[in-house]
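Thread: Newbie trying to understand structure tokens

Hi all, I'm a second-year student working on a class project, and my supervisor (Dr. K.) asked me to get a predicted structure for one chain before our next meeting. I've only ever worked with sequences, so writing a 3D structure as a token string is new to me. If someone could post the tokens and maybe explain what I'm looking at, I'd be very grateful. Here's the chain:
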Amino acid sequence: MICSSHLWSSNSRLARFAWRDDRASQLVEFAVALPLLVVFVVGIFDFSGAFTLKQKLTNAARDGARVAAADPANDLKGFSTPVPASVIDAFLAVHNDLVANNINDCGVPLGTAPTTNSGLTWTYQGTTNCPAGGLTITINRGYYFPVTGAALPSALCTSQSAGAQTAVIATCVSIQYAYQWRFGRAASLIGGSTLLPPTISVVSVAMNEN
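---
Reply by user tm_fold:
Sure, no problem. This is what the structure looks like when written as tokens:
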């Protein structure tokens, strides 16, 4: 009888100890929290990388627009050369900024002729060693917009209708750069889905000085 009572008491103590032991619950909590932690970490690095890239591209577009806007506009008359010198200057300014910031030029090296030309708009494109979409640099040396009520410039640097107003003539430089997001794959770990822009686009406009 004493042995049975002692055995029952020991089993009771073991049962109480097992119920108080929370080591297994900690493992479960970690397993549940881990995907969410991964999403946060990947999101921080991914969005900060996209923001940094956008800032660098913005500076490059500004430099290109300012350089071309300061050049004489007489090289645009009749297109005596395949590509006007002011357009080449804008492209070189953008390209040099990309190289200085260790941004892949997607196979659009110095001396490359524009991919397309329409009116006063020249477009450079490259996709080598870059995500789908690559790099697109658009330079419009005859960008115009109304004095008041102008909308924000588009990624294609398409001129706006001035209507009855006086048109402001400027140079527009836009850069569209493909960005490969990692946040979408991380979000799928918790059953989420994201729709993020495939490219980072920046536009800069500078009024022509000559």
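A couple of things are worth pointing out once you decode it. The chain has one domain: 29-207. Strands lie at 116-118, 121-126, 135-146, 167-178, 199-207. Feel free to ask follow-ups in this thread.
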